[in-house]
What we know:
Strand content: under 5%
Number of domains: 1
Order of helices and strands: HHHHHHH
Helix content: over 70%
Number of strands: 0
Number of helices: 7
Shape: elongated
Amino acid sequence: xxxxxxxxxxxxxxxxxxxxxxxxxxxxxxxxxxxxxxxxxxxxxxxxxxxxxxxxxxxxxxxxxxxxxxxxxxxxxxxxxxxxxxxxxxxxxxxxxxxxxxxxxxxxxxxxxxxxxxxxxxxxxxxxxxxxxxxxxxxxxxxxxxxxxxxxxxxxxxxxxxxxxxxxxxxxxx
Length: 174
């Protein structure tokens, strides 16, 4: 029961290292993968919805504040620059990078909740959930000992996270 709770919390937070470790543990204990997929789907949908409506509330209630106006101006310029297809591309590719808070910024992009839900969810599957499972299954194939597999998954996830952060920071400096 504790592992289900931990798995559910990991799916809400979607931090790659701990989620990969919990997924590996659930996989090694032969937990039902369909239920794991359902937990991922529900947690992701709830994260997107809460973020979207929280962003909408902040935009409406505090729209006259300096910080919100500044955010509104910057995201309006960004939205005009990238256009409709660019917004969809941004939801699919970039929202998994800052998920679960990405839903908060969606109301400023003038995208409907339905589109935001669908395209952010697709991005989460492609760029977060599938790689998590690929790491878990890859480690499980090559490492037989469960403890070694757990340590391997932590090391691999950490190295991948640091590598992505390094590449992202390097791209920001250019």
